[in-house]
């Protein structure tokens, strides 16, 4: 069979998509795959991500093409996929996850502890901005947009002293650049970070069956717990929550962190449960966050972002 799949046109998106195709062809050597690149709001709107009050800015247009039958499935960075999809779509496949941690890239290979006070550090993420400030409140954290190569070049050109981004990104596109790994306990990732999400029509049994051949079950379990947490806490680009799910034997463990605006307050919750019920674990973590005041933190973030946007 011949399948048409959609993705963004960035180097990372195309690298992820080609990796998905290579994995699918190992299991489905008789099938053919054609890539259709589609521009999204996130590609055309250059504002900092936290100023855009809309979910799915990197996937909505692509998923609409799936929903309308223009393409058979879409390949996304899973952290960009909203918890709730269009009515006739579902997350048809979650392949094996890449690295989940963030990395620190500075011009001279310095670590976050070595870089001089006052250095400008760029990030596209409120979560990372708060985490950087909690570790080094003497650094100047500023928004940065652009693809991975563009952001790295801004460090090499001296526009930024350093940047923080996901290790999965440089791994996927095969960039070799001096960097230091940031610890997950200080920099817990966004829900879904490092994973790929493949969206297809729920009633398209042929496509779903074909995609299931590269499903990675442990990754799916961890992701289901993380995405359920996001669904009930409503985290995202405008409210920073870090979460990391892990499968250990017959259990799934989920750890979550929520931060105040200044980073002076952090709520941490960890729960575990049967791997057969990851959504229950995600919901339990969300309930604990709510009981510990996460909604107050979220409201403060909304107020501050509205103030900044004005």
Short note summarizing the structure:
The protein is of the alpha/beta class. It is 35% helix and 24% strand. It is built from 10 helices and 13 strands.
Write the layout of secondary structure elements.
Blueprint lengths: L1 E6 L3 H17 L4 E6 L3 H4 L15 H8 L5 E5 L11 E5 L8 E5 L13 E4 L2 H10 L4 E4 L4 H9 L5 E5 H7 L6 E2 L14 E6 L3 H7 L5 H17 L7 E8 L2 E9 L6 E9 L3 H14 L2 H16 L1
Parallel strand pairs: 1-2, 1-3, 6-7, 6-8
Antiparallel strand pairs: 3-10, 4-10, 5-8, 5-9, 11-12, 12-13
CATH structural architecture of the largest domain: 3-Layer(aba) Sandwich
Distance between the termini: 52 Å
Percent helix? 25-40%
The level 1 CATH classification of the largest domain is Alpha Beta
Gyration radius, to the nearest Å?
A: 19 Å
User: How much of the sequence is in beta strands?
Assistant: 15-25%
C-alpha geometry: globular
Report on this model:
The protein has three domains: 1-94 and 195-215, D-Maltodextrin-Binding Protein, domain 2, CATH 3.40.190; 102-181, Periplasmic binding protein-like II (D-Maltodextrin-Binding Protein, domain 2), CATH 3.40.190.10; 216-310, Porphobilinogen deaminase, C-terminal domain (Double Stranded RNA Binding Domain), CATH 3.30.160. The longest helix is centred in the N-terminal third of the chain and has 17 residues, at 11-27. The protein starts with a strand and ends with a helix. Helix 1 (11-27) crosses helix 6 and helix 8 (217-233) packs parallel to helix 9. The protein is built from ten helices and 13 strands. A five-stranded mixed sheet has the order 2-1-3-10-4, with helices on both faces. Helix content is 35%, strand content 24%. It has helices spanning 11-27, 41-44, 60-67, 126-135, 148-156, 167-173, 205-211, 217-233, 278-291, 294-309; strands at residues 2-7, 32-37, 73-77, 89-93, 102-106, 120-123, 140-143, 162-166, 180-181, 196-201, 241-248, 251-259, 266-274. The chain is globular, with a radius of gyration of 19 Å. By secondary structure, it is of the alpha/beta class.
